[in-house]
């Protein structure tokens, strides 16, 4: 096995899938319900990656401030609307299914490590027929802490029975690379995801420009 790998961990939004259209639509439906102006794609993208609660909070703060003292009720409304519609426009990046198939056929254990709520994660993976490739999926509500906390990564490694030195994390943001590094895991950054700054500055071990490069990189 190339690099002595046993497992590959993947972020979800911006890494395996282009989910921004559905996220933007759900955010703007919530804002409209509170008589707020809609946000454009680039603005919403800059809010993605730190969990749904943070996304909702940032959206309201960008349009005049939180309408109430707690984000909880608005997060519940957002998720109730978003989860059943989370795969209307969401699609895998080009090459994702084929690459996952190649890695799986090579004997690697595959896992999803995402700050997205678990129900929405499961809905999307099932709708896009991606769930069959994964041995384990750990969303925000299944992890002891979310990325960039390394506990999100280490809990997956523990459940897979794989040491950090024999795993790699694939992601598109600072949270992915920071959590991997803190857990002692090598990392691959994608140049085409939802990164909030220059990908070259994330500090990943490798950067790829096309998802299909991943199997060659990892399998040799």
Automatic annotation (TrEMBL):
Keyword Manganese appears in the UniProt entry: no
InterPro entries per record: HAD-like_hydrolase_sf, HAD-like_sf, HAD-SF_hydro_IA, HAD_2, HAD_sf, PGP-like_dom2, PGPase_prok
Cofactor: Mg(2+)
Pfam family, one: HAD_2
Residues of the active site: 11
GO CC field: cytosol
Binding site for Mg(2+): 11, 13, 172
Keyword Hydrolase: yes
MF annotations from Gene Ontology: metal ion binding; phosphoglycolate phosphatase activity
Reaction(s) catalysed by this chain's protein: 2-phosphoglycolate + H2O = glycolate + phosphate
Keywords: Carbohydrate metabolism, Hydrolase, Magnesium, Metal-binding
Family note: Belongs to the HAD-like hydrolase superfamily. CbbY/CbbZ/Gph/YieH family.
Protein name (record): Phosphoglycolate phosphatase
Origin species: Paramagnetospirillum magnetotacticum MS-1
UniProt lineage: Bacteria, Pseudomonadati, Pseudomonadota, Alphaproteobacteria, Rhodospirillales
